[in-house]
Every structure is written in C-alpha cells, then in structure tokens.
C-alpha cells in the first residue's frame, strides 16, 4: 500500500487534575523533584489548591502580582506539565508511542509584542520578535515536514527558537480514565553576549548588565541591593568540612572562571588578591590556620590542568540535577579538602564592593564578552511557557502541534 496515512489529529490541553488555567506550573523544594512529581501524579495529590497556594506565596514582585519563580540556588525547582489527547469525541489519551518528541518554549511578553530566545549555530542571539507561533523551531524538521530533507540529519541541533524537552507519562484519574501527561524541567538560567561594541556600551545595556551583577551572586557576596538581606552569624561559615556553601561556590566560579584569580598577577585583580590573602582555611577544630584562599587558588592554577576548574564543571552538572556540591579538591593531590573557612561581615562587604568595581572595569574593556542574563527582573520581564508536541505516522511524516492560548502557562 503506497498511500500515506493521515496524520493523527492531536490537541494539547491543561492537565486533567488542574481545575482552571493552562499548562500547570509545579514548585518543589527538594532536589528529587522529578520522582516526587511522578509520585504525586500516581497518587492523585494535585488539585486546584496546590497551584494557588505556592503561587500566592510568590506574588512579591515590585511591578505586579504575578508569581516570581526562584532559582535552583535557592533549592527551588519548577516543572511544567500539560496533557496530550486525541482530537476526537471525548478527547481520549494520546498513545505515547505516537509521540516523536515534545517540548516547550519560553516567550517574553513585552509592550512591543511577544519575543523568543533565538539561537544561531547553537549560540544565543537573545530575545527577538517571535516570527510565528506555528513554525517548527528546528529548521531541519521544518524542511523535513515538506519532504525537502527526507531522513537526513535526524539529530541536528536546534537552529531557531530555543526549546526545552518534555517527557510523557501515562496515568489514570479517579474514574479510571487514561491520561497522557507531558512534563519538563523549567531551566531559569542562560545568557547572551553582545555581538557589537555599540550595543554593549550604550547606557541601557550597561544598566542591564550592572543590575544583573548586583543580584547575580547569592548573599553575602551579592544581593547588595536586596533590602531583606542582613548579616547573620550563620553567614560567616562558607566551607564546612570541605563542602562549600552555594554562595561560596558561586563566588569561586566568578573568581576562577571570570577573573582567573590566582593565575597570573594582574593589576586589575590586586585588591581582590589582597582580600583573599586575608581569608584562611582552618582544620576541623578551628585551631590551626592553613593556607589562605589566595594561596589555595594559586596552588590550583599551578597544575597543568587546574583541578578546581574541572571540579567547578562537575558541580555545575550536579547543580542542574539538584545535587549539592562535593568537597573542594585538594591541589596537593590528596583528594579533597576537609577544612573550614569563615568570612567576616567586613570581608563579605568588601567582596560585594570589589566585585562590583571589577565588573565595571570588565564592561568597559571587554564589553562584547559580558554575558547578559536571559531572565531579567525589570517591569517588562514577564514570561510564559508554550508547550508543543510532534507526532508521526507509519510513513515517517511528522507534524508539530502547538498549545493554543488556553494551554499556555500563566505569566510569571
């Protein structure tokens, strides 16, 4: 039989357990959030109050009453969920075997219109006007739908709007009816880089970068404009038995990856070096002071392959999975550190001040290399999620189905 089958009519809708609204947004305060979500679905834990309670807690934006989503550094994780059904009478659950892929995009809502986070050759271009709501974000798939590329380049990277994957799970409701849910982790990181010096150094861009830097590092090394941050005794200890706090981990990443502190002497880093020279590791009993933070960084850079750089890469992968950081590496080749490190309120203030100065120097000298955050906190930094689904027939033809206005997430 040579006639191609008709593509299966499909619809995306709000998950069956959500009484109102579009795609469901879930918040978890546990790193094992994927398994917790699957358990909640299986046990029927969700209801309308589940969504309203946490979203009400997070309505603290200075601009409006939309919920503010927290970052993984705050031990907070978000999932998005919708339902896939056949577009027939009763809308029965779509067979997961018919799904070739599923995902979602994040759109920015501005007074000028909707914007998409666009990529070119895998590199982010930043927020740009959304060209169309219906086109496939993968150029190869868009052409393949017209039989222009056939089976070639099946695993090509996305070349248009950035997408994030969703996974299918089949479950039943209280009445025994099947439902195919699509869920995915909502990443809240990402940057773009200025591609020309003119746009990178205009007042608007510099303000955007400065505002990001002011909030990028967790307290006590950042957040200097956040009025609810006040020094507490617990802020002092930043390394415990070799394990860094999330704030100290973020500080190390800036010192090592951005400024290469401890590598080659630099006049621009002199004040930061002096500050780090006065902060020392101690043994487990806080009796004998060990090497200073600057000496530790220099020892790591003294290796042909800096063990701290490799360790930071590993911790980034662990952070994306919601896992805490491992012990700091020992540059002397003895495995891991087991010491402690404390900072004073004055030293934390000095870091906030010096890092701000250092960043402004970097903006002026290397404007094109400065990352601008994907998600801002300004008045017009409002976002929403739009799921999509791809299905295919037995002949290899594929279609993409986008969520309509009723199935998009609430703005956040």
Number of strands: 18
The biggest beta sheet, please?
A: 6 strands, antiparallel
Alpha-carbon Rg, integer: 24 Å
Mean pLDDT: 82
Q: Main traits of this protein?
A:
alpha+beta; six-stranded antiparallel sheet; five-stranded antiparallel sheet
Account of the protein in words:
By secondary structure, the chain is of the alpha+beta class. Helices cover 27% and strands 24% of the residues. It is built from ten helices and 18 strands. It has helices spanning 33-43, 48-57, 139-144, 197-201, 203-216, 246-258, 270-277, 293-301, 307-320, 345-365; strands at residues 10-13, 24-28, 77-86, 99-110, 113-120, 123-129, 164-165, 167-172, 178-185, 191-193, 237-240, 243-244, 280-282, 289-292, 340-342, 371-373, 382-392, 398-402. Strands 4, 5, 6, 7, 17 and 18 form a six-stranded antiparallel sheet that branches. Strands 1, 2, 3, 8 and 9 form a five-stranded antiparallel sheet that branches. Strands 12-11-15-13-14 form a five-stranded antiparallel sheet. The radius of gyration is 24 Å and the shape is elongated.
List the helices and strands and how they pair.
Layout: E1 10-13, E2 24-28, H1 33-43, H2 48-57, E3 77-86, E4 99-110, E5 113-120, E6 123-129, H3 139-144, E7 164-165, E8 167-172, E9 178-185, E10 191-193, H4 197-201, H5 203-216, E11 237-240, E12 243-244, H6 246-258, H7 270-277, E13 280-282, E14 289-292, H8 293-301, H9 307-320, E15 340-342, H10 345-365, E16 371-373, E17 382-392, E18 398-402
Helix pairs in contact: 5-10
